[in-house]
Amino acid sequence: MKKLFCVILTLAFLFACVTPAFAAGKLDTVSDVLYVTEGYSSVYCYAYGELENTGDKTVYYKDGLIEVFDENEDVLKSYDWVSCYPECLEPGEKAFFIGSFSLDSGVNKDAVADYDISISKASSGDDCHRLPAEITYRVVKETYSTYEYLIATVTNDTSSTIYNTVIAMALKDADGNVVWASGNSVYNIGIPGGQTIEYRNQIDYDTIIKTLRDNGTDISTLTPEVIAYFET
Length: 232
Fold this sequence. Notes:
The chain is mainly beta. The protein has two domains: 27-122, Immunoglobulin-like (Sandwich), CATH 2.60.40.10; 128-231, Sandwich (Immunoglobulin-like), CATH 2.60.40. It has two helices and 15 strands. The strands form four sheets. The chain has a four-stranded antiparallel beta sheet, with no helix packed on it. Strands 3, 4, 6 and 8 form a four-stranded antiparallel beta sheet that branches. It is globular.
């Protein structure tokens, strides 16, 4: 009787080993960065990063929390208004996240010694359809000024006109880390089925170009990426 019991247990154990685990979506942070800059009247923090679904099931972004600390590891500020573009990720897909806020009055830039960004996922949310898109960096020189743009071309690969397309852009360094990102909705403009639009995003000098240069990065050396989509 004991011998039979052992055989049954062995077979049950082997079956458990070969049975696949339940599928799950996993939302991992690929890279993140925080810039602390002096403004006209406040100290501002700008956070950017990239997420990836490393699981084998659709995952949805829920929320994020950014915390900045002083040298004693005391929290100087917590901020939970973090935007993600898009909020729906299929296995292997990536998304960009953004958060910006000011420190409390009286807190100077040098007080920030460290930061932490935590991201949480949800099991359900709004689905989205990703669109074919390409992006280029372009410098436009005029008589008295020079402007720098990220220009995205987005194609509607469906047969119907789509509205409220979201275009997320990012700049990455040589190691593939996001150093800046943005997300913008193209409101009230329809893209007919099979047609392509061009979207220009002028790169702001004070909040982007100067901040990157102050941190030792020339924007012309970065690689642009784009994610275009609409919610379904």
